[in-house]
Amino acid sequence: MNYLNSRLKEAKAREYGNMHEAGPVITISREVGCNGLVLARLIAERLNKNLAKGSWNVLSKEIFYESAKELDLDPEMVRQTFKKTDRYVFEEILKAFRDKRYKSEERIIKTVKEVVRTLAIDGHCIIVGRASHIIASDIKNALHIRLTAPLGYRINTIMTNNKLNRNEAIAFIEKVEKERATFRKALKENNLHEDVFDITINRGSFTNEQAVDLIEFAVEKKGILHEFSPRIEFH
Q: How many domains does the chain fold into?
């Protein structure tokens, strides 16, 4: 969180008149059960090891915490705003009158989007989920990744990670996928925008190390780091 606070302060103090100066950023969109966070951390570790400069960090839930801080709200309230399928229910309208810290859904959604956007522009981060590939779609120095896998692979991953049985894992996948669709809908982005992705990787076909190799290759070939990180010369 200290890292996040300092990066946001620096980014807000900086002006990006030209989006070619924004980034570099990597976004990861994933089906439930693809271990996106695990892979993101491995990518950051690889990039930090091989680059002459630049410290890459992985961001996901931290975005909700920073948004909550700016809104003076409980982070869970921010998260729940994007998980609800029924909006503006009577109970919440009554709560709004009682809670002096109440913020409209529109303002919460706008703040989260601004936090994602600011971090993506500032660069040197891997943002997992949060519709970041859509929010950062106009940034030149960006690599947008989509992770998929056969259902059986994803069920086994969820069973292992969450210690669930098969039926519970299936129910979990369905629930989280609905929540992610609701998140995109809240941002007024009802579809996945698959045309944005630079590379799609089947997690069932590649090990973690192989997937990181593919992404590192894509980073190099797309050239998103050329303006930011000089090559290391060996003598």
A: 1
